[in-house]
Design brief:
- The complex is a heterodimer.
- Chain A is of the alpha+beta class.
- Chain A is built from two helices and 13 strands.
- Chain A folds into two domains: about 35 residues; about 120 residues, Immunoglobulin-like, CATH 2.60.40.
- In chain A, the strands form three sheets. In chain A, strands 5-13-12-7-10-9 form a six-stranded mixed β-sheet.
- The longest helix of chain A has 27 residues.
- Chain A is elongated.
- Chain B is α+β, with helices and mostly antiparallel strands.
- In chain B, strands 2-1-3-4 form a four-stranded antiparallel β-sheet.
- In chain B, a hairpin with a 2-residue loop joins strand 1 and strand 2.
- The longest helix of chain B has 24 residues.
- Chain B starts with a helix and ends in a 6-residue tail after the last strand.
- The chains are: A alpha+beta, B alpha+beta.
- At the A-B interface, helix 1 of A face helix 1, strand 1 and strand 3 of B.
Chain lengths: ~180, ~150
């Protein structure tokens, strides 16, 4: 193949301003400045939403749920962040303690997608079945609390259920953001 | 999960490209300490999110490959389309022409007359009146066309 095949004549393709080839495009630049102004406002709104807890770990993310029979109240984060630890706190009512024991059922979603790492205090026993785990704690009288440390691995929305023996179930939803 | 890791790497790369683009061009041949802080800090913060808790060599290699391919893709698109080239790099902007400042461009790009004079001195020009055209290039430098060229 001849060398000419790889050559092409130089053309004056760069737009000139005056007699200098600058390649300025003011129309594009003005549109970009408008875009920049918009995106800075968008970033500011994102930061405010983050500070408020829209992406977890803030005021909007915190949730509280109480079952109808007042046996259990739950503090948790309705918006979690992937690979970020959080605590779900279970407050047991007087009716939850039966014969010095509290039995609480925790659905599978809390164990796997929401990544339950440990439960504190250590339960006397754990029983699997019915799509979750039933923990049994020794208890005296209220106030009595237990904590579940969570560490979700992947983003997504998860529905969970927690129920104390003799009480109504608490259903909740947690959204895990990346 | 492998696809999630790749997605994180690509997102991190594209997000950094966007951030560096909109943070703006600052004139100068070298990075100022101010910009060093920005570049390293942005890079470090992005790295935390990209790597997560997976510190394996496989993860690192796959993410580097993903970022490399993404960069190649952007460079290819930039070559094929002037519109994308403008989006990625911006366009040159005239700051001074025929002894008139383009005040709108100066204020939007956060450039002062001192910055233009810095570059003029670099070319041996003694004052701003010796400049015919000053152009803010896409890579952040200010090019100076001396007024003397008009006579030659």
């Amino acid at each position: 193949m001849s060398e000419e095949a790889f050559l092409s004549p130089v053309e004056d393709t760069v737009p000139k301003t005056g007699d200098v080839a600058v390649g300025e495009d003011l129309e594009f630049q003005r549109a970009w400045w408008r875009f920049e102004r918009g995106i800075w406002i968008f970033f500011l709104l994102l930061l405010i939403a983050d500070l408020l807890g829209l992406f977890g770990r803030g005021w909007l993310a915190k949730a509280k749920a109480v079952d109808q029979s007042q046996t259990l109240s739950l503090d948790y984060e309705r918006i979690e962040r992937a690979n970020t630890p959080s605590i779900m706190t279970l407050h047991f009512g007087r009716a939850a303690i039966q014969n010095g024991k509290v039995k609480v059922f925790v659905s599978e979603e809390i164990i796997k997608p929401l990544g339950a790492q440990r439960i504190s205090p250590q339960p006397e026993s754990s029983t699997i079945g019915d799509g979750g785990i039933t923990y049994t704690f020794a208890a005296t009288q209220p106030p009595a609390t237990a904590e579940i440390a969570l560490l979700p691995s992947f983003p997504g929305a998860h529905h969970f259920r927690i129920q104390v023996a003799g009480g109504q179930p608490i259903d909740g939803d947690v959204v895990v953001v990346p | 999960m492998a696809p999630f890791i790749i997605f994180r790497a690509i997102f991190g790369y594209l997000f950094l490209v966007l951030m560096v683009r909109i943070v703006g061009r600052r004139p100068g041949k070298q990075l100022t300490p101010f910009e060093f802080v920005l570049i390293f800090y942005l890079g470090g913060l992005t790295l935390t999110g990209m790597v997560g808790d997976e510190s394996s060599l496989t993860n690192a290699v796959c993410q580097i490959l993903a970022v490399g391919l993404c960069h190649y893709g952007l460079a290819w698109l930039r070559f094929r389309s002037t519109r994308i080239a403008k989006l990625l790099d911006g366009v040159p902007l005239i700051l001074l022409e025929h002894r008139q400042w383009r005040t709108n461009a100066l204020s939007h790009m956060r450039i002062q007359d001192d910055d233009v004079m810095d570059m003029a001195r670099d070319q041996g020009l003694r004052d701003l009146t010796k400049i015919k055209t000053a152009v803010l290039e896409t890579f952040g430098e200010i090019s100076i066309v001396p007024a003397d060229e008009e006579k030659s």
